[in-house]
Each structure stands twice: as structure tokens, then as C-alpha cells.
Design brief:
Helix content: 40-55%
Shape: elongated
Strand content: 5-15%
Number of strands: 16
Distance between the termini: 48 Å
Number of helices: 24
Radius of gyration: 35 Å
Length: 671
């Protein structure tokens, strides 16, 4: 219903958002049901009515459930405020999940007790639970925790080891065992090869080179067929619209539409196939001084290119010279491929200047000369042919044969007849001036700009690491004026009185999304802190409750490494969303400790008892999230979300059972 209100359609994102909601929807009812069953087995409840036991069990977890529900909402909802192109792409997840949590709470307080009563109503309250019947793992847990609570060296050794393990896992980012990327590569059944020959290349030569590329593609086993487009653009999609492929025209441009076997009939993903064929295609293209780009359909919002450097400055020629140096840096940087720039090579321009005085004496007008040159070089429709076998009139197109219009001398040898019938060559009436053809000047927000583009391939397939290398090289680049090029990530330079560079493309989206996710995470922590402070009426206990949040990284980071997955924006969403679920488990532990303390139990026994008794609902909620997320584990786009939820829940559940009671004990003991 909420998707209907927001105008969302049923698509890949919203369907996975629904699957994500299923995983967290059952959290509150699980806690309810587990506590009801536990109360059925308590000796003190033996002989009581079923309805009293159910109401008492639900009432016991009512307050922590309400707090935990709003904690999860506080963790997820800020993700709806991510800006940029990825904002609308991600928004269905936090919007749907927040509503799902409210329904989860309503179900836990209305449907679950009612259903429990009607299912368990005929059963008697057994009241058979005792500490002797605890399983071996719980007994082992009590022994270990009692030692940690009693002996400081055990306690600090465990906490120190946990922190050390966390830093070791985070170091995997620094050692590039885990690659950070905006979105992983998708698995499509097509890609395009964009071919750019040097300016001035004939259409026939462009076609010849493109056919050579096609001959190699025909040897690739996964390629079913391909189509060559010379002089015009390939069929373009949304990606082509953003990259302006629909504007591609001219004798020196071409494209190849490559179609692959369906996903079920091949083992390699489309990106792996593109990586495999790129070196061979590049080698063929270099023989003819051509530049190629392999354009894959992006998994998310399309961009001009993976790597885009926008060069601004006071003088356009100076911008071009600096861009040329930056293009060379792109070509020399390991892992950067398909380097190109949006600058045409200088092309000769021949201008026929009519000597009007001579033309007048010869009896030939300027209009006659222009008309003759136009017909000879470009051709002109001079009439219509009425053919009996044709439904419509056929235009008569008059033009010189190609061999008679390929050189300036051919056009100069054209003869025109004056009024007296005398034939006069055009070479006597015109002067040919050689110049340079005007080049396109690109602008962005009214500022002249030169684009340098590239893609990323190799061991590190993320623009993050490529740009770190490029930034370092560009920083040392020598330019006129002997000053360092200022580099921007999210905004254009305000002034163009100096050469400056702005990074765009996938890097811009990556930077913007992870920045906004970081801000959202900071907002999440503040909201959770406020909620927990309001409930526990302490400014220090919330730090204990929130301590398992970073501990989830102990599971998330190595899980990405084992799966060979990128740490993507969806991975970050899974980490932030998991933070709310992790904190809810800590809240359940903390509330149970407070309840035991009010019953008169000592602090040492209360913290151990909480971890022993409340571990089962914590484990069940974690398993529910794991089962719900497992459905999307093998999707190339949302795999990061599933890994973060599954691995994060496992690690945080196991560690929070130990860390939260210890920190709670230290905090309350100090008071």
C-alpha cells in the first residue's frame, strides 16, 4: 500500500525491498512467541491460566519491543534521504522496511497473543523449566561468563582481543582484499563496442576496421551474433542517452552491437566476457590508430563514463594542452583502459573565395559557382523521375563520381558556361585558401570544459583506487604558471581563472552516495542514542547498547572476501540496516538485566542470566534475517546487502552475547 501511495512500480528494487522486509517483519513476533513459550515452562507459572501467562509474557517484553522497533526504524529511515542519482534507486528499501516494522510491532501485540491463545489454549502450563535442563552450550556460556565477570584479566583479554580482531578485519580494506565500489557489475546478454577512428578517416576505412573487430568477435564462443553500424550510432538505451551516443554521426565513427548467449547457457558473466575480449579488440584497433570503448549496460544509474576528468581553465587552448597530458596519464596508469578525450584532431578546411571582379568580367555569377561546387561535391536533387513501376516519384540526385570530387584540383577543373557559351574553369574565378576546421567546444553550466574519459579493468575494478593513483600523478603535473591543479569531487570550480579539474562519472556517484550514507549512519547513531537514553535514563548505557554495531564488521568484511564480492552501496545499506537489528538485541539484553536487578538478583548474576536466557530470541531473529536475505544472496546487484545482513547478524549476535553483558557490568559497577 505504501508503495502504491509513493507511486513505486513492481521492479527489481522494490521486489528485493519486499524480500528484505520479510526478514525483519517477524522479529517482534519471534521475541513474543519465544517469551510466551519460556513463561509456559517457568515453575512459578504452573497452574495459572493460559491467558494470564500469555498476557504476562507479552507485557514483559512490551516496552523493549516498542523501543527496539523504533530503533530499527531510526536505523533504516535516514537511508531514504540519500541524494543524487542513487537516491530514488534506494528509497523503496527504507520506506517499505519502516512501514514493515510498524506492522511487525502491531502483529506482535495483537495477532501473536491472540493466535497463541487459540493454539495453546487447550494446553496446561507445564512449569517444568529449571537451570539443570539447560543445554551444554548455555552451561558452557555461564561458566565462561562467570570467569570474565569475576576475573579482570579474562575480561580485558576478551575485550582487547575483540577490538584487535575488528581492526584486523578493517585492515582488509587497506590491503585491498576487499574492493570498495558503488555497485557491482551486472550480468546482461549484450554489450557494445564503440569505435572512433581518427578524424578525416573515410567511411570505407572505418568499415574495414570495424569488420576486422567483428571477425574477432565471431570467434568468441559466448557471442551469438553482432551487428556493425558505420557512420551512425548503434541502437541506444538509457546508457546511450546519457553518453550522447545518439549524436554519433560521421565517416570516422562506428559501433558494434554484440549479443551474448542467455545467462543460463553460459558460465561467464557478461563483464568477464567484456574483460576477456577488450585486450584483443584494443590490439586490433591500435593497428589502425583507432580508439575503442566497451560499453556495458550499467547496474544502476548510467554515467558519461566510469572515469571522467573535467578540465576547466581561463583559455580553451591551454585546457586542451593540459587535457592532453592528463590523457597520457590515463593511458600510462595501470588498470585504466579505454582512455579517450572529447577533442577532435585539427582538420584542414578549404575555402573557395570568389574573385567577383573576374567573375563579373567572365559573365558568371557567384551563385552559379556556388551551385556548381555544391552539385559536384555534395550532390543535389534536380528533379523527379516518374517511373511506371514505382508508387511514388523517384528523386533525381545529381553528383560527380567519387574519383572526380576527391581532391581540390578536381573541383578547380570544373568548367562553367557563360551567356556567350564560352567555357571557363572555376580555377580562374576563385582562390583556394587553406585553413583549420572549427572544433566543437563543450560547455558545462556555461563553463568551457574538456572531457578526458576512461574505464577500469584488471585486479582493481573500482574507480576509487584508479582515481587515487590518477590524483597522485596529476598533482605532480607541470603546467603553465607552475601551480598545482586543484581537484574537485562534487562541485565545479567557482572561478575559471586557473586550470582546475573535477572528477565525474561513477566516482562522483560513489563519492556522493557513500558520503550521504555516512551522514545517514551518523544520524542513525544519534537517533538510536537519543532513544536509548530516553528509555534507560542514562547517558553511558547507550554506548554499551550500541557497542555491537561495529562488531558486525567482523563478520561482514571477511564474508565479502570469501564471496569475492565488492563492498558496495548495497553492502553499506545492509550494514546500517543491520545496526538497528543489532541494537534491538542489545536492548532486549539490557532490559532483561534491569528486570533481574529489580527482582533482587545481584549484578554479576543478572548480566550472565540475561545472556543465557535472552540468547534464544536473539538467535531466532538473526536466523530470520539470514533466511530472508538468503533469497537475494546470488543477485549480482543486491548481493552486498544480503552478505552484510547475514554475516553481520551472525557476528554481532555471537559477540553481543558476550560484549554487552561485560560492558553493562562495568558500567553499572562504576555507578
Amino acid at each position: 500500500f505504501i508503495y502504491y501511495c509513493f507511486g513505486y512500480t513492481l521492479n527489481r528494487v522494490t521486489l528485493f525491498a519486499l524480500i528484505f522486509c520479510i526478514g525483519i517483519l517477524v522479529d517482534d513476533p519471534i521475541v513474543d512467541v519465544e517469551n510466551i513459550i519460556r513463561h509456559f515452562r517457568l515453575p512459578k507459572n504452573k497452574g495459572r491460566s493460559v491467558i494470564d501467562v500469555i498476557v504476562g509474557a507479552v507485557n514483559e517484553v512490551r516496552s523493549p519491543l516498542i523501543l527496539a522497533t523504533f530503533t530499527v526504524i531510526a536505523a533504516i529511515l535516514p537511508l531514504a534521504f540519500v541524494r543524487g542519482l542513487m537516491g530514488p534507486y534506494m528509497r523503496p528499501i527504507p520506506v517499505g522496511a519502516s512501514v514493515a516494522m510498524l506492522f511487525s510491532m502491531a502483529i506482535a501485540f495483537i495477532i501473536t497473543p491472540w493466535t497463541a491463545y487459540h493454539i495453546l489454549g487447550r494446553k496446561k502450563v507445564a512449569g517444568e523449566e529449571s537451570s539443570e535442563k539447560e543445554d551444554i552450550f548455555t552451561q558452557w556460556y555461564r561458566k565462561v561468563m562467570e570467569k570474565m565477570i569475576r576475573f579482570a584479566r579474562w575480561r580485558w583479554a576478551f575485550l582487547g582481543g575483540t577490538i584487535l580482531l575488528l581492526f584486523l578485519m578493517m585492515s582488509l580494506f587497506a590491503f585491498k582484499v576487499i574492493i570498495v565500489k558503488m555497485l557491482p557489475f551486472d550480468n546482461k546478454s549484450e554489450f557494445q563496442v564503440v569505435v572512433d577512428m581518427p578524424e578525416g578517416t573515410t567511411l570505407e576505412e572505418t568499415a574495414h576496421v570495424t569488420q576486422k573487430l567483428g571477425q574477432y568477435l565471431s570467434t568468441v564462443p559466448e557471442v551469438t551474433d553482432y551487428q556493425i553500424y558505420v557512420g551512425i550510432a548503434c541502437p541506444y538505451n538509457f546508457n546511450g542517452l546519457v553518453r550522447h551516443y545518439f549524436l554519433r554521426r560521421g565517416p570516422n565513427i562506428a559501433g558494434i552491437q554484440v549479443n551474448l548467449l542467455s545467462k543460463g547457457k553460459r558460465k561467464a558473466q557478461s563483464h568477464d566476457i567484456a574483460k576477456r575480449v577488450r585486450p584483443h579488440l584494443t590490439k586490433i584497433a591500435q593497428q589502425y590508430k583507432a580508439r575503442i570503448k566497451i560499453a556495458e549496460i550499467p547496474p544502476g544509474p548510467p554515467v558519461l563514463q566510469t572515469l571522467v576528468a573535467e578540465i576547466y581553465g581561463p583559455d580553451y587552448e591551454e585546457q586542451i594542452q593540459v587535457a592532453k597530458k592528463i590523457l597520457k596519464i590515463f593511458e600510462d596508469t595501470e588498470g585504466v583502459v579505454d582512455a579517450d578525450w572529447y577533442v577532435e584532431e585539427k582538420q584542414p578546411k578549404y575555402t573557395f573565395v570568389v574573385d567577383k571582379e573576374k567573375a563579373a568580367f567572365s559573365g558568371i555569377s557567384t551563385k552559379d559557382i556556388v551551385s556548381a561546387l555544391k552539385v559536384a561535391s555534395g550532390g543535389e536533387v534536380v528533379g523527379l523521375a516518374h517511373l511506371p513501376d514505382e508508387r511514388e516519384d523517384v528523386p533525381i540526385f545529381l553528383q560527380f563520381p567519387r574519383k572526380e570530387r576527391s581532391h581540390i584540383s578536381d573541383l578547380e577543373d570544373i568548367y562553367l558556361s557563360n551567356a556567350s557559351g564560352k567555357m571557363i574553369p572555376i580555377s580562374e574565378l576563385v582562390k583556394v585558401r587553406k585553413g583549420v576546421r572549427e572544433q566543437n567546444i563543450y560547455h558545462k553550466n556555461l563553463k568551457p570544459v574538456v572531457y578526458v574519459t576512461g574505464d577500469v579493468a584488471g585486479a582493481e575494478e573500482s574507480p576509487v583506487y584508479a582515481i587515487l593513483k590518477l590524483k597522485k600523478s596529476i598533482k605532480t603535473l607541470k603546467i603553465p604558471g607552475e601551480y598545482e591543479i586543484q581537484q574537485y569531487s562534487t562541485k565545479q570550480p567557482f572561478l575559471t581563472n586557473k586550470i582546475a579539474l573535477k572528477w565525474d562519472g561513477e566516482w562522483h556517484i560513489t563519492y556522493e552516495v557513500f558520503r550521504d550514507l555516512g551522514l545517514a549512519f551518523a544520524g542513525v547513531l544519534i537517533l538510536i542514542y537519543i532513544l536509548v537514553v530516553g528509555w534507560f535514563r542514562s547517558f553511558t548505557i547507550p554506548f554499551t547498547i550500541m557497542s555491537p554495531i561495529p562488531l558486525s564488521l567482523i563478520g561482514i568484511i571477511p564474508a565479502h572476501a570469501l564471496m569475492g564480492a565488492f563492498f558496495t552501496a548495497t553492502s553499506m545499506i545492509g550494514f546500517i540496516a543491520g545496526a538497528g537489528i543489532v541494537v534491538r538485541n542489545s536492548i532486549i539484553l539490557g532490559d532483561f538485566i534491569e528486570m533481574r536487578l529489580k527482582e533482587g538478583m545481584t549484578l554479576e548474576k543478572a548480566v550472565v542470566d540475561a545472556g543465557a536466557i535472552r540468547f534464544r530470541p536473539m538467535l531466532l531473529t538473526a536466523l530470520a534475517v539470514i533466511v530472508g536475505a538468503s533469497v537475494i544472496l546470488f543477485d549480482p546487484i543486491f548481493q552486498g546487502l544480503a552478505i552484510s545482513l547475514m554475516a553481520g547478524e551472525v557476528s554481532s549476535t555471537l559477540f553481543s552475547r558476550m560484549v554487552v553483558p561485560i560492558l553493562y557490568y562495568l558500567n553499572r559497577k562504576r555507578d
